[in-house]
Amino acid sequence: MLYKFTHLIFVAIFLSLAIVCVNAQVDTSDAGTRSGKNNDEDYPKGIKELLAKGRIEREKKDYEELLQNGEEAVKLSESLEKTFAESKKLSAADLKKLDRLEKLAKKIRRELGADESDDAEEDEKPSSMLHAFKILQNSTGRLVDELKKTTRYSVSVVAIQSSNAFLRVIKFIRFGKN
């Protein structure tokens, strides 16, 4: 009797698990709408226009932020060159500015669509720290000029190369080598 009872319970558990598994199956005929991906064809025309306007505004804001980051980088590089020319050394505040400058350069590179690899292209190598600061200021200026030439829809290889050179000079200043 106990054997039949445990056998009956085992069969009932097995059937309930089978029912749960069958109900968990997904109908793949309309999987595009259930996957969580937005399909623009599913939205009414007014919502599509609102989404497009929002995307355009975000792109404009991102582009303006990219230009502002470039302008900030120019100001920081000018400030660093000026203070190094006067004192011939970097203070703690100057090192913080250099860190900020490096973060801005990396952010600009990322926004331009560059990857994290550093293509070691042979540019002008600085012969001294003062020369490195002059190269830094020139490369920042070139980068910002190139950013101003581009649109928010384009990817500038020259701007990416300028940002790479910019980062190499920052590395030279920080570590005394390229």
Task: Give structural notes.
With 178 residues, the protein is mostly helical. The chain has one domain (44-116, 124-175). It contains six helices and no strands. The protein has helices at 2-23, 31-34, 45-87, 92-112, 129-149, 157-175. Helix 3 runs antiparallel to helix 4. The radius of gyration is 29 Å and the shape is elongated. The model has no long low-confidence stretch (mean pLDDT 81).
Secondary-structure blueprint:
Elements: H1 2-23, H2 31-34, H3 45-87, H4 92-112, H5 129-149, H6 157-175
Helix pairs in contact: 3-4, 3-5, 4-6, 5-6
Overall tally of domains: 1
The Rg value, from CA coordinates, equals 29 Å
Could you list the spans in which at least 5 consecutive residues all have pLDDT below 50?
none
* Beta-strand residue fraction: under 5%
Q: How far is it from the N-terminal to the C-terminal residue, by CA?
A: 85 Å
Task: For the structure shown, list the relevant keywords.
single chain, 178 residues, mainly alpha, 0% strand, elongated
In short:
The protein is mainly alpha-helical. It has helices at residues 2-23, 31-34, 45-87, 92-112, 129-149, 157-175. The chain has one domain.
